[in-house]
């Protein structure tokens, strides 16, 4: 049977029934009463947590059919995932559900091997790229992957939708009882934001570290009350690959033009006043926005109450300059931001629930004024795709996109076309973030304002140097430049399902036809 | 028109296409490598074929490596490669543009 949700996406009725899912209806969360779950606690005095090898801890904890998790704070410098998965595959364990905060490129080969060996049969993640995305999009995994935003992962863990049996969490320092943080040691990554959910809700919490320090270790982001085992390994990560070193500002004139217009949209909006808050991504244009915004804040004698999200050095620079009063930090994208956390008490580590969970008593994203987000595609209904490429293959991540898009002014900054691929399209390949939560699209030729935001149409229609278009006209302009692409071909088989942040299904990703 | 020598035009930079033209006996044979093959492969092949036909080339082996070039770029690189292959670069084929 065919079923359509509120963003006009066809969903497989039988799959929804089988997995007990509801179709997406609305961005509104409301005020429901939620019953959370609690982890099982194996009581201990803590005298016996240090184990000699990964083999020993896997033997003691992981059984067929369990759900295991990892964090992705080491990004492409991660050594922990491959070390642990190697042992699990070699132990012959089968039918695991892999539930990491996300999967980075360095994990791809090992995940594919584990799928082929029958070790991993289910995956839920924020995203996947490269060879793994290709493998899944070509039908390599039998059960559909479930994609969740960072806020939604926190919600799913609290609800028990994701029940983590064993969490393997790499840390650059820990003491023998498991007090740990992400700030000191060799492979530092700053905030442990996503891993804090696993530490709080997994039945078994295993820390892996290359830096066993004196007890008690402070500040303790992960606490001894949560940790079952501490394993000492040679190296947890490659510090040079965790984040880009020094963040360079883009010189690309197209990106600078977009950034300048994004800045104009922000400064002409009703939200640009003392005490405003913002979140920017890590792309070239987003970083350039931070630079323009700094100048505008100085000129208007305005400071921001907080900056949120994945943090980069340009943002921590604003903190040190006093232009931003607090940095609410769930993840650090570069070395500068990661090392700044230790010396700046106003750079607050927040967990994924505090950051963006829709089902709690108040998340940071609910207080957010301005969010600047990117898009692989945006359609004439303002729906955004950050998950599948122009060839229909999985190559992205939900990240915090759906979550941050609930801000009061959500701006998508994207070029009209990339090479021969249009960014503004009649219909996105995969809906990740619904158009109802997107307010303004900024491209190098001009902006389009979501007609549902009549207030913004009035405020933003006469900014000098910022031409306003209907989004349909931007789409036509893009198509005129690149031509009309042949429609992508998919099979009927669903290889992944994309949840909205409330746990409903916003879209399905089908296997590509080759 | 007869292809006299193998000729190359274009680069492997983003938004460009590199066209290599050599002698052929079996009509126009195109080997295309493109990141946008799924969406624009047929269109790129059509533009190359039409451009060669306009230059009265009926047999050629074409090796094209596309990096997301627009039609106008595909056409320009094909003309350049063709005129180099024909040895007619001193007489630009204006009517083909």
TrEMBL record, chain B:
Its main location: cytoplasm. InterPro entries: CitD (IPR006495), Mal_deCO2ase/Cit_lyase_ACP (IPR023439). Keywords: Cytoplasm, Lyase, Phosphoprotein. GO terms for molecular function: lyase activity. One of its GO terms (cellular component) is cytoplasm. It is found in: Cytoplasm. Covalent carrier of the coenzyme of citrate lyase. Oligomer with a subunit composition of (alpha,beta,gamma)6. This is Citrate lyase acyl carrier protein. It comes from Levilactobacillus suantsaii.
């Amino acid at each position: 049977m065919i079923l359509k949700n509120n963003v006009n996406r066809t969903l497989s009725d039988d799959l929804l029934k089988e997995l007990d899912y509801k179709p997406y209806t609305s961005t509104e969360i409301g005020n429901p009463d939620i019953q959370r779950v609690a982890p099982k606690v194996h009581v201990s005095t803590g005298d016996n947590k240090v184990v000699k090898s990964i083999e020993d801890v896997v033997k003691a904890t992981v059984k067929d059919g369990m759900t295991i998790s990892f964090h992705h704070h080491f990004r492409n410098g991660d050594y922990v995932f491959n070390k642990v998965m190697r042992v699990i595959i070699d132990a012959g364990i089968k039918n695991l559900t892999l539930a990491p905060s996300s999967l980075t490129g360095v994990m791809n080969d090992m995940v594919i091997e584990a799928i082929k060996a029958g070790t991993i049969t289910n995956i839920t993640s924020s995203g996947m790229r490269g060879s793994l995305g290709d493998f899944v999009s070509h039908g390599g995994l039998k059960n559909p992957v479930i994609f969740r935003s960072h806020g939604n992962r926190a919600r799913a863990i609290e609800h028990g939708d994701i029940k983590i049996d064993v969490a393997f969490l790499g840390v650059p320092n820990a003491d023998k009882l498991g007090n740990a943080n992400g700030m000191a040691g060799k492979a530092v990554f700053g905030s442990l934001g996503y891993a804090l959910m696993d530490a709080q809700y997994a039945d078994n919490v295993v820390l892996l570290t290359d830096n066993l320090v004196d007890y008690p270790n402070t500040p303790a982001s992960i606490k001894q009350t949560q940790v079952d085992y501490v394993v000492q390994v040679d190296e947890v990560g490659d510090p040079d690959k965790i984040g880009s070193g020094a963040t360079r500002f883009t010189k690309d004139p197209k990106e600078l033009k977009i950034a300048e217009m994004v800045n104009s949209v922000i400064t002409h909006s009703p939200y640009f006043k003392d005490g405003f808050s913002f979140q920017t991504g890590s792309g070239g244009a987003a970083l350039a926005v931070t630079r323009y915004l700094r100048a505008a804040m100085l000129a208007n004698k305005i400071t921001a109450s907080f900056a949120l999200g994945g943090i980069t050095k340009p943002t921590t620079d604003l903190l040190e300059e006093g232009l931003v009063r607090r940095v609410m930090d769930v993840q650090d994208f570069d070395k500068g931001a990661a090392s700044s956390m230790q010396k700046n008490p106003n750079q607050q580590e927040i967990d994924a629930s505090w950051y963006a969970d829709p089902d709690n008593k108040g998340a940071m994203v609910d207080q957010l004024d301005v969010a600047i987000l990117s898009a692989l595609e945006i359609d004439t209904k303002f729906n955004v795709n950050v998950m599948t490429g122009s060839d229909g293959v999985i190559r992205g991540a939900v990240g915090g996109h759906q979550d941050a898009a609930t801000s009061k002014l959500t701006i998508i900054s994207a070029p009209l076309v990339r090479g021969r691929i249009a960014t503004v399209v009649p219909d996105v390949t995969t809906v990740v973030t619904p158009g109802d939560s997107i307010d303004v699209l900024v491209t190098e030729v001009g902006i389009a304002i979501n007609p549902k935001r009549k207030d913004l149409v009035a405020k933003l229609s006469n900014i000098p140097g910022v031409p306003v278009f209907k989004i349909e006209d931007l789409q036509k302009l893009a198509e005129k430049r690149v031509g009309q692409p042949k429609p992508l071909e998919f099979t009927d088989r669903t290889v992944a399902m994309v949840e909205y942040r409330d746990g409903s299904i916003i879209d399905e990703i089908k296997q590509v036809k080759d | 028109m007869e292809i006299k020598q193998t000729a190359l035009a274009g680069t492997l930079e983003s938004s460009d296409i590199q066209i290599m033209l050599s002698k052929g006996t079996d009509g126009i044979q195109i080997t295309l490598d493109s990141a946008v093959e799924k969406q624009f492969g047929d269109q790129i092949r059509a533009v190359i074929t039409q451009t060669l036909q306009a230059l009265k080339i009926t047999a050629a082996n074409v090796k094209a490596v596309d990096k997301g070039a627009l039609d106008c770029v595909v056409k320009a690189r094909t003309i350049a490669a063709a005129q180099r292959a024909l040895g007619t670069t001193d007489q630009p084929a204006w009517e083909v543009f």
